[in-house]
Amino acid sequence: MNIEELILKKVKDLPPSGIRRYFDLLNEMQDVISLGVGEPDFTTPWSVSEAGIYSLEQGHTHYSSNAGMVRLREEISRYVQNNYGLEYDPRSQILVTVGGSEGIDLALRALTGPGDEVVIPEPCFVAYQGCTRLTGATPVIINLRAEDQFKLTPELLEKALTPRTKAVVIPFPNNPTGAVMNRNELSALVRILKDRDLVVLSDEIYAELTYQGKHVSIASFPEMKDKTIVINGFSKAFAMTGWRLGYACAHPEFIKAMTKIHQYAIMCAPTTAQHAAIEALRNADADVKEMVREYNRRRRVLVDGFRQMGLECFEPLGAFYAFPCIKNTGLSSEEFCEKLLLTEKVLVVPGTAFGKVGEGFIRVCYASSLENIIEALKRIGRFISGLG
Amino acid sequence: MEEILGILEKNCRYTAEQIAVMTGKNVEEVHEAIRKYEEKNIIVGYTALVNWEKTCKESVLALIEVKVTPQRGEGFDKVAERIYKFPEVKACYLMSGSFDLTVIIEGKTMKEAALFVAEKLAPLESVLSTSTHFVLKKYKDKGAVFADKPRDDREAIFI
User: Fold this and answer.
1) A362: which strand partners?
2) H or E element: which one contains A331?
């Protein structure tokens, strides 16, 4: 039996993670400062963890309903209303998922297939393209530009749309660039999108992490509400990555379709995490604010550090990444990252891991202590001056 | 500007230059703010948080609940001052509730600490009674956990 032949071609064709080998190197090295992994260094606020523990003590160790605990969905409904002005009925328009990632997968599986095109602005989180390919749909890549501060412009969007466009991914605040889209910039996109038969997949997992003004959801434009699926979750805002909990908010028909796949594939999101998430939404505002304040300080130190050493770095106003340009070092993104790791023991991620357009850039995650960031900047500075 | 205080309270080793970058202010503003805080005794001092248990130094901490008679016209402040002037006293707080002052003292041995209470504190005229509790272990102080920081053993994940 040829085992390899049993594996679907579209799965074999999926690119493996671009930075796997750095992580393998990392595992063998000591004293590495990792600014590579995109997750908060903070542990989950204690009151939230404690709520999870308490739920276990109470014996809440069973399944929840497929769509998630009603109490949690009610809290999510209240939260997105208060924070982003979005109105969703907890019973028919909200689905609790295993992380935001599951929501992305469900939406693409429920809506797209062979013959459809999914517009994906790059650089971006790797899952959109992978999940799209698995549905058989075709990813249509928009190359965002540094001179636009990696925002999606109406011109770029319009060029990518065709009669076959089924979905458009709007991933802001953005991983890996830290770019955000304000209301005016979104409204320029809305003008193009509102009259077309397509769905917007708005990945807002970093919505709480903005540093100049509040996050605006494209779903808050009334003409976009019905055609937008909002993906969000607890990982980034509440430092709950390991709990694996997210949610999708959308038109009841979309949620119904996504719930069907969810119920066959997943059954329901982890119950303990759901109990913890209720506490997070009710009582962790102050914790979130404190984390955002701390990220903001780190962000400023990091961006200032890069500029001091002569690297161009546009101001990232969201998420927890900076995306400096390293073209003037004469190295490719991959060479830069590998050499930096081997000589100075700092792990950052080549921009190319997030799309070809990321060449010449590196993603640096500032979800690490200020002490680490200050030391990492010292090492990167030494590395760059060593290049002559 | 209170943000500067918050940052320094967490880690007073940041330079004015670093704080300026963190807060988006200019360096002169930060220098000036810190100078004023020091002048007004808002920043009272800069210290290191030491876990003495990991050193060879022998010492004990005791927390003493003290009931006192307030002095006419001077309330508790005068009594507190007579107590906190002893170098053995590391901290002194006026309390609500069933006693008046919390006095935290440090001595080389339990005996030394007990003798301080017996010979210096309890005999003071305004002191009505004392109740001494010895600290057995410090878990957390000034917001910092004393246990060794767990190693970052997160496994690599690509996101």
Assistant:
1) A350
2) none
Q: What is the DSSP letter of A174?
A: P
**CB-based contact, B7 to chain A, within 8 Å:** yes
Q: Would B156 be classed as within a structural domain?
A: no
A32 CA to centre of own chain: 24
B17 to chain A: closest CA residue: A301
Inform me whether the C-beta atom of residue B147 falls under 8 Å from chain A C-beta atoms: no
Residue of A297, A292, A289, A322 whose CA lies nearest to A179? A322
Chain A residue numbers with beta carbons less than 8 Å from the beta carbon of B154 are 37, 39
**pLDDT 10s digits, A288-325:** 999 999 999 999 999 999 999 999 999 999 999 999 99
Say what the pTM is. 0.90
Distance from B52 to chain A by nearest Cα, in Å? 23
Q: Which of B7, B14, B158 comes nearest A17 by C-beta?
A: B158
Which ranges in chain A are annotated with CATH 3.90.1150.10?
Answer: 3-44+286-386
Of B14, B24, B156, the CB nearest to A23: B156
Between chains, do A39 and B7 touch, taking CB under 8 Å as contact?
Answer: no
- The CATH fold assigned to A46-284 is Aspartate Aminotransferase; domain 2 (3.40.640)
If asked whether residues B32 and B70 sit together in one domain, one would say no
Q: What is the pLDDT of residues A58-111, one digit of tens each?
A: 999 999 999 999 999 999 999 999 999 999 999 999 999 999 999 999 999 999
Query: Under a CB-based contact definition with an 8 Å cutoff, are residues A105 and A131 in contact?
Result: yes
> Contact A342/A298 with Cβ under 8 angstroms?
no
Complex-level ipTM:
0.77
